[in-house]
Design goal:
- The protein has about 1500 residues and is α+β, with helices and mostly antiparallel strands.
- It is about 45% helix and about 15% strand.
- The strands form 7 sheets. It has a 9-stranded mixed beta sheet, with helices on both faces. Strands 17-16-27-26-25-24-23-22-21 form a 9-stranded antiparallel beta sheet, with helices on both faces. It has a 6-stranded antiparallel beta sheet with strand order 3-2-4-13-5-11, with no helix packed on it.
- Strand 32, helix 32 and strand 33 form a beta-alpha-beta unit.
- Helix 24 runs parallel beside helix 34.
- The longest helix is centred in the last third of the chain and has 39 residues.
- It starts with a helix and ends with a strand.
């Protein structure tokens, strides 16, 4: 009791101390006390009372707040405020136009629909919250002195929680105790970042040495930590003990809410952050809301509608005033007096009428447009989700649409910014080759093995990753697990076993560890290097046995063994065993007491090594260790796949126990034996780490165990060695390296092993002393390694350097003192640790380097080629080194061997400015960029118009001066990019970059990526899309107009920040070219149709004002006025907006150029709004005056004349929609039929039942009488025809005489299937084939050198425009040589309107090309194809042939002559036919292999 009474006193004392510091720390830190100290105290005394509890509430509304809060949100929309204002204005007697209650109906309906939708979404959130809040966990109770079960929502900051294996964390918990003997706890963070590999978390240092179980009653420390924030990778604080001692806290001590405990039976922690203050909840932002470009454009036109409305109302008011004024003092009989009973002056009458007319004409602003757009967008998202082409079977993931309101932006993209690793590549790192001590080992057998995977990769992966697991569609994928698991565990059993979903997930994960496909694991060692490793280890074993110093080992052999030790231990890889899913392997022993016998060995290793079929009994499959009493050199077998040799002494009989439990029978022949189930699993945080550990294992240097203070490695002949792990200096993007400090078990030296990017490691190598032979050797190694690094990079491999450093005890003691000071610092700890690492990582000795291949994802080159044809500029922003990035860029067709590369590498701002100046001058002088008009004019005066390179960014026509994109690639490194992004240079950088066809930014930081995107978006005013897969891409994704995340191997952070999430890069092609195109086209046409429809209807009433003294009367019944837009004409346009397809999927994918339609906003230009308004006014005139003259001399009443006008307007509007609809389905017909039926049903019922609804007028039996009148039927035929004739005539003429590319695509869809397939297949097979569009369809003949000069003097369009008849001479050739002369004439000019894009290079993927043998193509293909085409079809084919799909490779290359002679343009033509697509062009291939004909012209 004395202790208990002391504790509150101590707490009070500490509270006083804290209050002194409160002023300085209040904003930065929070103090957490144990709640059990305050169990008996009043609530006000608990210092944790101000912190959030663990109950989560993601709902927006409560029962009471729903109505006011929802209405408040809806009134954020200006349109809603406007409509409510109009409805309320109608309640003012002086100005009202309709019955007030009736006028409220539409706006109430719109608000109600939105409110019900919000309510339903909120209810679903409420249900989800309830399930999560009522999950249970074990919380310590002081009263019961044990852990009791409580709901998650009852957990508080300061509570002690006991966690079990496979349990989900209810809050952010500081780890104080673990059942793991190494005081570790393993967690899986898939729900937070999608990463399935295990992470290690450590018990707080001061609780590390507890001998007994943690007792919460003895805890009396205070935790000071930072305020809640959303940074998942940072946690800072310290724990203050009663003695006054402080211990630092790190992110390694914190377990985050939503993570799952793995491989740890039990753990205890104290809650630091709860509920909405947890990092997971602070990161959960939900879907994002952006305004699309189309919506911004639409708002401008809504503003114009308001202007038109005010002009019409003003006109009517002035007319009414004048009309009243003409009566003078004689008041007309029908004049309405003012409320006071006095006469109104004409001016007051006009003012009142102005307000009345606003009410009457309110429909001009389309109230239903905003709701309709929302409905259509939701339907579009649904259909995109349903597209099975965007489903990836391997990862079992669909496209996710996270931003619901920018689907149409997908159809208007102009720039794509892509990450490389994991986005364009697989992020499957495969060890390819290495150099050790200056000797290169090419690993040819391994290269052959990887080549085999090119063909059988998909099947192998299917077998290994899914074999024996549940069906793929039933699996719970990582990004779904949070939702599925958290909501399915409301029973108490989940604590011990996890839910069924959890169990299923665990089984899947146990079968498929991250970064462990057979391609990555099964490395074939290089025989020469393997022999050296064996020789080295056997010598070391001999020296150890005879107690000789290890320094006598030859340098080259010592470097080899150190190289592999570094590969094995310089990482954060966790080792786990396979039979017990995700269970860590433990190996801890002292080398000083070596294993003497097999019995001793089994006894020591049995509990923690491999388990047998049952989980309880376990046995080791390890067979023997070096037996010192026999002196035989046998080796300890690590159960790995193909990398372990078991040299078993033949005298030693197999032991029965091992034989019974070993997963496979032991092998005695010394050959490698495979343990499919028995091999160790490596849980790596990055694929690079996994690749290097698997590479080391292939040379029998296996990582077999990792503890916080020890790494166990198994080497050939030497058996297991335990390295004491003193420090791990983790990788960071600034240092670009990681290091481990270990005590070497054989030499007892303190050794630093470092691995990192060659750009930094090579600068840290100790300068060799060239005086000594050792120094000369070192210099030679460094030079040779640098050469090999350059070769690796040229092959597109990722390079890493491995180095080491031996520290003396004095050096280590000195460094350690500074390092410990940095570790315990609270302020600026990261900076101090960074400086500490820099002090250690100097004067390194180079051991070698590795080359790792990151394979391209399937379909990436084709996707990039296709997107580029669609007019998209593609920039790749990567953190990789320049050479690697350049070669990947060649492989994925971003750069082409044909084009010249501008490389910008500068080491100062002045140098960067000079480089940019020179580049600009070079481009302007040599490529005649449009920015220099004089040069262009001079050029055109000397030559016929010559399109060097058409603009592939359509923004050029609408923004700034047009510019030409040249056959140039730009490569810039991170340092130069930093200078180029400075305010003074950014414009020059942009001028250079926008003139280049491809831009590649290497070594760029996450911040630079986002700055580049922001610069292009803001300066060029273009639509940007950023795509990436890792946390380093998040800032870029958030800055772009549309952010796309790839749900790859780097986790889900990019997905969480994105608007759309894709499983693979190749799906971007269909998402943009098909769904983006459709979404934009549908919405643009729907918006224009809405404006037209409303204007046309309102104008009918406006014309009537001329006949009623501008009194605000209407000849249309107010019921029709109110419900016409809301009910009668609403459904057909929703169906068209959701389902209309202007061009088929096949055509859109085969002719990517059609995407340019959206980039240029062809469907919604400003003039189209005005054209629609003019058309609306014309149609309303026809619909008004034809019935007017038809009933002119009759005695019909007002409504008998007005109702036909309403009916005719409805028919006209629906037929107009029919003209604009491109794809007819049964739903289109049904919706139109339904609209007409609904109108007549309502009209008949209303007219039959409402004789006195609208006194003094009487609508009774109006429709019934009209239906008996033949004149009414005649009007119904004549009027819509007359009204729509101009539009129909315009559409027919335009489609026939001046068709747009999209209309030509539509014509193509109408061709017979066979013909269309021939045309499209030709463009598909030959896509990028260097074919000349020659007669009558395509000639595949190689042009002769004779005719070359003559042919090349043909006319090309001007470089200022991207439109024009590109291939005029071909047309002449066609007529003169062999093709039909007039049959192709009918549509021969179609292509003059097609935006040509000769930047579409010939992406050849042919085996003949690789060997450098150009093959002359045959003309048979073209002839065969001609026979299948009817003459009439050639009209369409002529368009196809003259589009860039089949464009000739007409390139211009400019080379500065070395001798300073005359500058010349070299015009090259590539004339190779390629029909295969099996191999990627070898990056090293350049222009010399292309068949050239040159036209030299002195400038």
């Amino acid at each position: 009791m004395a202790r208990e009474s002391e504790e509150p006193g101590m707490a009070k004392a500490s509270k006083v101390k804290r209050q002194r510091k409160k002023k300085t720390k209040e904003n930065k830190t929070r103090a957490v006390h144990a709640n059990i100290l305050y169990d008996h105290a009043k609530g006000e005394e608990n210092p944790n009372r101000h912190y959030a509890n663990n109950k989560i509430k993601t709902t927006k509304y409560t029962v009471l707040s729903f109505l006011p809060k929802n209405l408040f949100e809806q009134f954020h929309r200006f349109a809603n405020v406007y409509f409510v204002f109009i409805a309320l204005l109608n309640f003012v007697p002086v100005v009202n136009a309709f019955q007030p209650e009736l006028a409220l109906a539409p706006v109430v309906f719109i608000l109600s629909v939105t409110a019900i939708k919000d309510l339903w979404e909120d209810y679903r959130r409420h249900r989800s919250d309830k399930e999560i809040n009522h999950m249970d966990c074990l919380v310590y109770s002081r009263v019961e002195r044990r852990y009791v079960e409580k709901y998650w929502k009852e957990v508080r900051v300061g509570d002690f929680i006991r966690l079990r294996c496979n349990e989900i964390l209810p809050a952010d918990v500081l780890l104080l105790s673990s059942s793991d003997p190494d005081r570790l706890c393993h967690i899986e963070t898939a729900t937070l970042d999608g990463e399935t590999n295990l992470k290690q978390r450590q018990v707080v240092r001061s609780f590390f040495d507890l001998d007994c179980d943690f007792d919460p009653l003895k805890y009396n420390s205070i935790i000071e930590c930072e305020k809640p924030n959303n940074d998942l990778n940072r946690f800072r604080g310290y724990i203050i003990h009663r003695s006054g001692r402080r211990d630092a806290l790190y992110k390694e001590n914190l377990l985050l809410r939503g993570c799952t405990i793995r491989n740890t039976e039990e753990a205890v922690g104290i809650v630091i952050y709860a509920g909405h203050e947890t990092k997971a909840m602070l990161n959960n932002n939900g879907p994002r809301y952006k305004r699309s470009k189309l919506e911004r454009q639409m708002n401008v036109d809504v503003f114009w509608c308001v202007i038109i409305l005010l002009v019409m109302c003003l006109f009517a008011a002035v007319g009414h005033g004048l009309w009243m004024f003409q009566y003078g003092d004689k008041r007309p009989v029908f004049d309405v007096l003012s409320p006071e009973g006095t006469d109104l002056s004409p001016i007051m009458s006009a003012i009142y009428l102005f307000l009345t007319m606003i009410i009457v004409f309110q429909v001009l602003i389309p109230i239903s447009l905003f709701v309709s757009i929302e409905i259509v967008k939701i339907c579009q998202v649904y259909f995109i989700h349903q597209d099975m082409d965007l489903y990836d079977e391997e990862t079992d993931s669909h496209l996710q649409c996270r931003a619901l309101n920018i689907t149409e932006d997908l159809g208007q993209m102009q720039y794509i910014f892509s990450d490389k690793t994991g986005t364009l590549t697989e992020n499957k790192m495969v060890f390819r080759r290495c150099t050790v001590a200056g000797v290169e080992y090419s690993h040819d057998a391994n290269a052959k093995r990887l080549a085999m995977y090119q063909e059988v990769d998909s099947e192998e992966e299917e077998c290994t990753s899914h074999g024996g697991t549940l069906p793929r569609r039933d699996s719970v994928t990582s990004h779904q697990s949070a939702r599925v698991v958290l909501r399915s565990q409301s029973t108490k059993s989940h604590r011990r076993t996890g839910s069924r979903a959890e169990a299923k997930r665990a089984s899947i994960l146990s079968k498929h560890t991250a970064f462990s496909s057979p391609m990555e694991k099964d490395i074939t060692p290089d025989p020469q290097l393997l022999d050296k490793v064996n020789e080295c280890s056997s010598q070391m074993d001999f020296m150890r046995f005879h107690s000789q110093p290890m320094s006598q080992l030859p340098s080259d052999l010592a470097d080899i063994i150190d190289f592999f030790i570094a590969l094995t231990i310089c990482n954060t890889v966790v080792v786990s065993s396979p039979n017990q899913p995700r269970h860590k392997v433990r190996v801890r022993f002292e080398l000083k007491s070596p294993v003497k016998t097999i019995e001793d060995f089994i006894k020591r290793f049995t509990p923690s090594r491999l388990t047998s079929g049952s989980n309880s009994s376990s046995s080791s499959s390890l067979i023997t260790n070096r037996s010192s009493n026999k002196g035989c050199s046998s080796m300890l077998s690590s159960p790995s796949a193909e990398s372990t040799l078991t040299k078993l002494d033949e005298e030693q009989p197999p032991r029965g126990l091992e034989h019974a439990f070993s997963p496979v029978p032991p092998s005695y022949d010394g050959k490698a034996w495979s343990l499919e189930e028995g091999e160790l699993r490596y849980e790596a945080e990055s694929p690079d780490e996994a690749a290097l550990v698997y590479a080391a294992r292939a040379y029998k240097c296996s990582l077999v165990g990792r503890l916080p203070d020890q790494v166990t490695v198994e080497l050939p002949h030497l058996g297991k060695l335990s390295f004491e792990l003193l420090h791990t200096l983790g990788f960071d993007s600034t240092r670009k390296r990681m290091s481990v400090v270990v005590r070497h078990p054989l030499t007892d030296q303190i050794t630093v092993y470092t691995k990192g990017a060659d750009s930094v490691i090579m600068d840290l190598i100790k300068p060799p002393d060239t005086g000594s032979s050792k120094g000369k050797r070192q210099k030679k190694i460094v030079n040779r390694t640098q050469n090999y690094l350059n070769l690796y990079a040229a092959d597109g491999l990722r390079t890493l350097c491995i180095a080491k450093k031996i520290l003396s005890k004095e050096q280590y003691a000195c460094w350690l003192q500074h390092h410990l000071e940095a570790e315990t610092a609270i302020q600026g700890r990261e900076e101090l640790l960074f400086e500490s690492a820099l002090r250690l990582e100097t004067n390194l000795q180079l051991l070698g380097a590795t080359g790792i291949e990151d394979r391209l994802q399937d379909g990436v080159p084709e996707t990039i080629a296709s997107l580029r044809k669609a007019g998209l500029q593609i920039w790749v922003l990567t953190g990789d080194k320049q050479e690697t990035a350049v070669n990947i860029a060649y492989a994925c067709k971003l750069l082409d061997p044909e084009e010249e590369i501008l490389t910008l590498n500068a080491d100062s701002q002045e140098a960067c400015a000079l480089l940019l100046e020179e580049s600009l001058h070079y481009i302007q002088a040599k490529f005649l960029c449009c920015s220099t008009d004089q040069a262009t004019k001079a050029f055109h005066s000397n030559f016929p118009p010559f399109e060097i390179y058409p603009s592939s960014s359509p923004s050029s026509s609408s923004h700034a001066a047009p510019f030409t994109v040249h056959r140039l690639g730009l490569v810039i490194d991170g340092r130069t990019l930093a200078y180029a992004l400075e305010k003074s240079l950014e414009d020059k950088f942009l001028a250079v970059a926008r003139s280049c066809r491809s831009v590649l930014c290497c070594r760029s930081t996450p911040l630079q990526k986002s700055m580049v995107v922001k610069l292009v978006r803001n300066k060029l005013k273009v639509m940007t899309l950023a795509i990436g897969d890792g946390a380093n891409d998040v800032s870029m994704i958030q800055v772009a107009d549309v952010g796309v995340g790839i749900s790859g191997q780097e986790g889900m952070q990019a997905v969480m920040a994105s608007d759309f999430a894709l499983p693979r890069f190749r799906y971007l092609q269909k998402l943009l070219l098909v769904h983006g195109h459709w979404c934009y086209s549908r919405l643009a046409n729907m918006i224009l149709y809405f404006f037209y429809k409303n204007a046309m209807f309102v104008a009918l009433i406006f014309w009537y004002q001329f006949y009623c003294g501008f009194s605000g009367s209407a000849m249309i019944d107010q019921w029709y006025l109110i419900f016409f837009n809301l009910m009668f004409s609403a459904f057909p346009q929703l169906i068209t907006g959701t389902l209309d397809k202007d061009v088929s999927v096949e055509t859109l994918q085969q002719l990517p150029q059609l995407y340019i339609n959206g980039q240029n906003s062809e469907e919604y230009k400003p003039y189209m709004f005005w054209m629609n308004m003019i058309d609306a006014f014309y149609q309303s005139l026809v619909c008004f005056f034809i019935p007017y003259f038809a009933y002119a001399d009759s005695d019909v009443d007002l409504f008998t004349w007005g109702t036909p006008i309403t009916t005719l307007a409805l028919f006209t509007i629906l037929v107009h929609l029919g003209i604009e609809t491109k794809t007819w389905t049964w739903m289109n017909w049904l919706s139109i039929g339904f609209s007409i039926a609904l109108f007549f049903t309502v009209a008949l019922c209303y007219n039959a039942s409402c004789p006195t609804c609208y006194t003094p007028s009487n609508p009774y039996w109006t429709m019934q009488r009209l239906l008996q009148d033949p004149l009414f039927y005649l009007l119904c035929v004549v009027t819509p025809v007359a009204a729509l004739l101009p539009r129909y005539f315009y559409r027919a003429c335009q489609g026939t005489l001046f068709p747009s590319p999209v209309q030509v695509g539509r014509q193509l869809d109408k061709l017979p299937a066979e013909t269309r397939r021939n045309i499209l297949s030709l463009s598909r097979v030959k896509v990028g084939s260097p074919l000349s569009p020659k007669p009558p369809f395509l000639s595949l003949a190689k042009p002769s050198s004779k005719g070359c000069n003559k042919k090349d003097q043909r006319s090309f369009p001007s470089s200022k425009t991207s439109q024009g008849p590109v291939f005029q001479t071909d047309e002449e050739d066609r007529r003169s040589s062999q093709g039909p002369t007039d049959s192709v004439k009918d549509l021969s000019d179609i292509y003059t309107l097609v935006p040509t894009e000769i930047d579409t290079l010939p992406y050849t993927k042919d085996t003949s090309l690789l060997s450098g043998e150009p093959q002359p193509p045959s003309t048979k293909d073209a002839e065969c194809l001609d026979k299948t085409l009817e003459p009439s079809d050639l009209s369409v084919s002529s368009w196809i042939t003259s589009t860039p799909v089949l464009a000739q490779t007409d390139s211009i290359q400019l080379n500065l002559p070395p001798d300073g002679g005359s500058q010349c343009v070299k015009y090259t033509r590539n004339s190779e036919e390629t029909l295969k697509s099996d191999h990627i062009v070898h990056p090293a291939r350049r222009t010399e292999q292309v068949a050239e004909q040159s036209l030299h012209t002195t400038l």
